[in-house]
Amino acid sequence: MNYEIDNLDKQILRLLMQDVTRAYTDIAKELGVSGGTIHVRMKKLNEMGVVKGSQLLVNPAAVGFDICAFIGVFLEKGSEYKDAVEQLKAIPEVVELHYTTGTYSMFAKLICRDTKHLREVLNEKLQAVEGVQRTETLISLEESISRQILL
């Protein structure tokens, strides 16, 4: 696809990043274009992979998940990465996973109800993943910044 993101696309994205439920017609009025223009632009941005869909964000603490932990995962061999990822996908408490350089082979973000739940996930699920040599756990005390990139 030979389409470049322009200033209008960035304005549309900024407005939707602030409030994804905002109607295209409202955005169109604010930006001085037609609702159809917004629809066509969003369709192109989706097709290009700029927009990765939309999802409802739930506050974990509001539904009883009070622990956020980051887990540094050491693999026995780097070649076990793909298999380990597939096994980690089956653990619902793993909400993010990154293949990293540096100390850890992978870095995971887990959301758990409490420290007992975290211990169960670590001991019974994460440590059972084939290829995981050991882990290091960092418990988040507070999420100070959570944001999208600035366009």
What's the gist of this structure?
With 151 residues, this protein is α+β, with helices and mostly antiparallel strands. It has helices spanning 7-18, 24-31, 35-47, 81-89, 115-126; strands spanning 67-75, 94-99, 106-112, 132-139. The two termini are 21 Å apart.
Structure description:
The chain has 151 residues and is an alpha+beta fold. The protein folds into 2 domains: 41 residues, Winged helix-like DNA-binding domain superfamily/Winged helix DNA-binding domain (Arc Repressor Mutant, subunit A); 80 residues, Alpha-Beta Plaits (2-Layer Sandwich), CATH 3.30.70. It has 5 helices and 4 strands, in the order H-H-H-E-H-E-E-H-E. Strands 2-3-1-4 form a 4-stranded antiparallel β-sheet. It is elongated, with a radius of gyration of 20 Å. The two termini are 21 Å apart.
